[in-house]
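Hello forum,

I keep getting stuck at the same step: I have a sequence, I want structure tokens, and every attempt I make locally crashes halfway through. Rather than fight my setup again tonight, could one of you with a working pipeline run this one for me? It's a single chain of 462 residues.
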Amino acid sequence: MEFKNCFKHLGIIIDAKLSWNSHIDYILTKSDKLIKSLIGLGKQKYGINPKAMEIIDKGAVLPIISYGVQVWGDAITRKTIVKKLSRLQRRYAIRMIRGYRTISVDAANVLANFVPIDLHLNSIIMEYYIMKNIYHNTLDIFMSNNNINLHSIQRPVSINHLPHPAKRKPILDYITSDHTGNFINIYFNYYKNEFNYISVSFVIYYNQDTLCEQSFKLETYCTLFQSTLFAILRSLEYCALELNCPCIILNICDKSVINSLFDYNSTSYLINSIYKQYYILLDKSINVYINNIDNQFDQVIYAKNVAILAVDSDVINYNLMSKNILKRKLREYMIKIWDFRWQSTEKGPQTKLYFPHIATRLKVKRTFNHDFYVCQALTNHGNNNYYLKRFHLKESQVCDNCGHESDDTNHRIFDCSAYDSQREDLKVAVINENFNWPPPPCAFISYKLFAHFILFCKSIYS
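Reply #2:
Ran it on my machine without issues. Output:
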């Protein structure tokens, strides 16, 4: 029998020492092939659009790297592994921002808006631990900073706990269904105060008479979507215990809630709980219908007034965090770590002038366009004497146009007399936006000035 040091199982290469080196080399080689093919399509001045490259990174490159990271994630604690992964991410980021190959990984990631690969993988691992209710010491700081614990997460229901497929039945649509007899109408609404606490209520009507009204308060990290589902669940629980009427109509304003309620195969905790109550009502020969209504109904407005009364309550009726909110908080946590690293590093000093904090980069993620000439200005890695002298491609860094001692990007933008005429157009745009000249460099990245800045960068570097 032949002995092997490693074997491949479900796409993950497992070695004898569980060092995961073979798997890391495998995913690096696989990702590298994809990146090389994309690099051939995306040149500095032409080729595939940087926005398209960003989509490809999220949809192809990152999934290759992060596949099965919940299994091999311990390898990320080793610096050699992180360096290998960071080197790969840097190559792709530099091609995306259309920059020079000498740009540091820190500056390249900020300009490309790429969360460092080790932080991205750690967020996936932490999400897995939390959703599976597994304690790990890496969770301590995150959980304490966000005042949550493993028991306050809304986890999906196991598919094994759903009823047999033959026994599952959807809640009926009031408009398309046949219905006769007496009806109970239930209306829902919510309220969110300035402290992000959410209150929700339901009001039950029979004809024009109010049979019951109840309100509940949810934690600050709960969503309005959760609040409506929770109110529906409590209303059906009340009807199953207290009322005996052949038909119940759930009058709902939120179409996303309605669409989710029609999915009787859902593993969502709240939707699954609602269907449990629905099946109990069906056993009692009570039909439940969903009706989509406008939020201007008098009953809906009254339900909101009822909800407002509960927002100041000291009792929290629901405190489970949804998976989407958990992901958002994990991302915010990773961005804080990323920002700390960005502030601590000595690399990318020119880029820091424009993006002093990661939050500054995130603010312009929709309006910032990558450009070969702009990248030279933002990194000081470009066709200027300062850069050429630094890499021993020129003997002097003195400006060829005005004789200034250092021909770097900031000299060309603010001082060099050779670009006075082009600079006037940029000055006018800056002053029109109520900035003094010279403005802080980060002002050039603002939405209204960025187009003028692109033209100016092209004039000083073309």
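The chain has a mean pLDDT of 90. If your local run keeps crashing, start a new thread with the error log.
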